[in-house]
Amino acid sequence: MNRQGLETLYYYNKTCNLRCRHCWIEPDLNASGAGELTLPEVKDLISQCGELGMGSVKLLGGEPLLFPYFRELISFLIDARIKILIETNGTLIDDAIARQLGSANPFVSISLDGSNRKIHSILRGNPESFDKAVRGIQKLVENGIRPQVIFCLHAANRNDLDNIIRYARDLGAASIKINFITAVGRARDIPSERLSVADFIGIYKLHEKESYQDFKVQFDIPPAFHGIDCLVKGDNQGTCGIKGILGVLSNGDISICGIGNIRKDLVLGNVRTHRIEPIWNGNETLRTIRTNVPEGLGGICRRCIFKASCMGRCIANTYYETGSLFAGDRFCTEAHELGLFPQSRLL
Amino acid sequence: MSCYALRKDVVYRKEADGALIYDHSTGRVIPLNGTAAFMCDSLLIEHHGVEEVLNGIKKRWRVSDEELVRSDIEKFLIGMKNLNLIEEVQTEEVQS
């Protein structure tokens, strides 16, 4: 039997210091950390994953810098020569952390939802978080790391897009990723603030040819919507890589990604009671994903010529919205229903 | 006489600024920019020779180095062969 290699462990902190209204993970605000994995348990988890071929660890949340052992964990990953990826709100990056990360050459993404305090805090709810995130970016840049800025596009910040692109460049970021807010987690409760699929596609089309030397503008949009130029350059083709990912929450719950935090039926076990290898190689949900992605994808994905690279975009999101991992991506489905899906990309 | 054509199970889609080739067997999509799409049309669908394709390119785009373009056409064909997207067919077969 061909075994799927584990490429990246996604390790999620279930707590956060912000309470953003569009967060899909719904982490606890400043939770006590009781019941969370200890550093030795995390090290053991990483060692087990290493035996399955894992080459990188992505730390996310919630807020990964709230791990009480964050710096020790980074040291462990550096010593183990494991590639580090971090998705953070940036507010807790101090000089010591920036210096340490500078020696690790990680890929760091920091959320900035506006080019000023007022716009940034519309969904994030904390005006100070803008200044702190900006300081975090500056500290990373001072230490040789050019982070990616993640900008969640919504109705109230859409007119700030040009400003944030300029601002992110000026701060020294390497790229900006513009995210579509899906109706998952807390974002379900802000329907009028989320952008429609049609608006997001329209804004993407206005910016898709925007390019700068040494700075990338990337939209989180399925490759079926990318223009030929973009496809030829190979830009903007971020896909999930779901088959090579395992998600672990800071309470030890194992899932396909962070979805286990909000869909308990996608919790596959817990690192305190299960070894990783039997789950990775034998769990029925993971086996079904390997069998069905991409060939068993349904809906619009079944007919899409990009299904092998896109892999259904985000099957966790599809599961959340439809109860099936393989029902076909909702963004593309809606675009197709609106007549906005490029017909030349369908079989 | 033989020439090259896209494999029968390969999907070719023209778009305003280029084209896409979808290989069913691998699931891979190969994007072609405007010039590559023109080469694909001329060489693999209309079955023109390299010189005819070169002349077609000269009519549409400004060409300062013919040798470079000729070499690009040949490289395009080699690339398509390496990707196993084309097959050799008899000219009579194409005409019928």
What can you see in these coordinates?
The complex is a heterodimer of chains A (347) and B (96). The longest helix of chain A has 15 residues. With 347 residues, chain A is an alpha/beta fold. The mean pLDDT of chain A is 94. In chain A, the strands form two sheets. A ten-stranded mixed β-sheet of chain A has the order 9-8-7-6-5-4-1-10-11-12, covered by helices on one side. In chain A, strands 2-3 form a two-stranded parallel sheet. Chain A starts with 7 loop residues before the first strand and ends in a 10-residue tail after the last helix. Helices cover 35% and strands 15% of the residues of chain A. In chain A, α3 packs parallel to α5 and α4 crosses α5. Chain B is of the alpha+beta class and 96 residues long. Chain B contains four helices and five strands; from the N terminus they run ββββαααβα. Chain B has a three-stranded antiparallel β-sheet. Chain B has a two-stranded antiparallel sheet with strand order 1-5. In chain B, β2 and β3 form a beta hairpin. In chain B, α1 packs antiparallel against α2 and α2 crosses α3. The mean pLDDT of chain B is 92. Chains A and B meet through α8 and α12 of A and β2, β3 and β4 of B.
